[in-house]
Amino acid sequence: MKAIREIVKVKNRQVIINLPEDFDAEEVEVIILSDYERSAFSKYKKDTLNESETPYVLSKDDLDSKNITIPQWQIEEVERRTQEYLKNPESAVSLEDFLKEFEDDL
Question: From start to end of the chain, where are the E strands?
Fold first, then answer.
């Protein structure tokens, strides 16, 4: 997978992304974050990397009150990963290490 991260200006509600000459994909996924969302995520990373709680954890009541449905496959995947962690806790990666590795790959 090839990833490109670029901050671009919006003009007339449009953005133009120039791809490198050697970029030969025929289809790409585009994720757009506003300045507010980018700064909120950066603040979230700084504020929560060394804390045990995060503001993005929802309770079952939160999910029910907002009519959010989690697909069964996703529930099963979380259960599988939890069981794997419980069997082998030393294999876990900290959020800080994960985010650093993720950003290094961009």
Answer: none
